[in-house]
Amino acid sequence: MELLQHADTVERLLKGRQLDGYEIMVSQSRDLSIEAKGGKVDAFRCAEPFGVAVRIQRGEGLGFSFSTTLDPEALARMVDGAIVAAEMQTPDPCNVLPLASAAPYPELAGIYDAALPGIPEQEKIARVLDLERLVLSRDHRLKRVRKCSYGESLSSLLIRNSHGLNAGYHGSYVSCSVSAVAEADGDAEIGWDFDFSHRFSGIDLDRIADGASRKATSLLGARPIPTMRSQVVLDNRVATQLLEILAPSFLAENVQKGKSLLGGRMGERLFSGLVTVRDNGLLPGGMGSAPCDGEGVSQQDTRLVAGGVLEGFLFDSYWGKRVGSASTGNAVRNGVKGPPRMGVHNLFIEPGETSAEALLAGVEKGVLITEVMGMHTANPISGDFSVGAAGFYLEGGAIVHPVKGIAIAGNLLDLFGGVDMVASDLRFFGSVGSPALRIGELDVSGI
């Protein structure tokens, strides 16, 4: 109700102005973060950001401005600023505000935990302290926790425009993570894991503790291996990191600007026939799931790659207008301080029917990669990458010993084109996810 009243206040300021269109967005949230170390709370932060933003259309110009207060003078300056920005902008016929849809917004169950506001803060503090205790109890080689954290956000969003569009929803997000250090025989390794959910009860502390402790202890005693070209298994986290590098290539903006690895290749088989990629903004439990995007357009499930063939790209209203395509509901916002931009919601490779362990079978000589370093150096436009890695040496379909001090190199399209097995263990790390993948051949640099 409060958001509606705030939108009404801004709309009254817009009435009577000579405008060709307007959009109002009101957003508020309550964000909490807790960190623990050594059995004590190390940090406790709580914030309640609020803001209102407008986009105003004058002719073919679209101006943006925002305010973090409802002070009448500040709101008036916001409106005046957006009008001036629209008038100063280079005219562009693709500057449009979305029309209201006759179809109702999709109903998404479970994206808001109504019980979360009533859970005492002491219970949330206990959760992060429990996580630290659990991970240290898993193995005597786990000596300390570098960081253990709990985070939550309760948010409300309202978008209204002059074309009759009215969209809004409440959402919640809860996460826990831990980074632990294992030591043995002069060697030290770090293991990290996390979990997220829309519900407080959806976080599995035991799973996080097991994952972090296993990753830290399993790499103790790792050593280099000789350089080779071999089969490589990527665990779901590493596969997700590689898909994240490819993600911008699915955005229509990058395609039109010549910054996409996939531009001009619609209908081509660019990936293995085992690979299907979707961006599903309605995925149950997905971090990016919501009824509408940052412009108030309904989010949807968009198939981008089917059986290895590139089928489509992602659009917002501007880039859809520019190429004559409907928006796929892929406008995103990072708060009220910037206009909508293009982004993915829940981008993922569809899982197969094989267990992650089964991917190792049949690897006569190869590597299981569980960690990569320097992924930010990969080139998203050319697709070339060369990154440090760690994991396990495989022989005869079994793990022989942990390895580190190696690197993997290649091209993203060659890598995804070389997938010969897809596991069933799809997992999201933020807004992107993947199951484990087996690659037929990849360059592995060692000693």
What is this structure, in a nutshell?
This protein is α+β, with helices and mostly antiparallel strands.
Characterization of this structure:
The protein has helices at 2-14, 72-88, 121-136, 205-218, 236-246, 252-256, 317-323, 412-417; strands at residues 21-37, 40-47, 50-58, 61-67, 142-161, 166-184, 187-197, 228-234, 277-280, 301-306, 309-310, 331-332, 341-342, 347-349, 365-373, 384-395, 398-411, 419-422, 427-428, 432-434, 437-445. The longest helix is centred in the N-terminal third of the chain and has 17 residues, at 72-88. The strands form four sheets. Strands 1, 2, 3, 4, 5, 6 and 7 form a seven-stranded antiparallel sheet that branches. Strands 11-10-9-14-20-19 form a six-stranded mixed sheet, covered by helices on one side. The protein has a five-stranded mixed β-barrel with strand order 8-15-16-17-21. It contains eight helices and 21 strands. A hairpin with a 3-residue loop joins strand 19 and strand 20 (432-434). It has 447 residues and is an alpha+beta fold. The chain has two domains: 2-216, PmbA/TldD superfamily (PmbA/TldD fold, 2-Layer Sandwich), CATH 3.30.2290; 222-447, no CATH class.
List the helices and strands and how they pair.
Layout: H1 2-14, E1 21-37, E2 40-47, E3 50-58, E4 61-67, H2 72-88, H3 121-136, E5 142-161, E6 166-184, E7 187-197, H4 205-218, E8 228-234, H5 236-246, H6 252-256, E9 277-280, E10 301-306, E11 309-310, H7 317-323, E12 331-332, E13 341-342, E14 347-349, E15 365-373, E16 384-395, E17 398-411, H8 412-417, E18 419-422, E19 427-428, E20 432-434, E21 437-445
Parallel strand pairs: 8-15, 14-20
Antiparallel strand pairs: 1-2, 1-3, 1-5, 3-4, 5-6, 6-7, 8-21, 9-10, 9-14, 10-11, 12-13, 15-16, 16-17, 17-21, 18-21, 19-20
Helix pairs in contact: 3-4
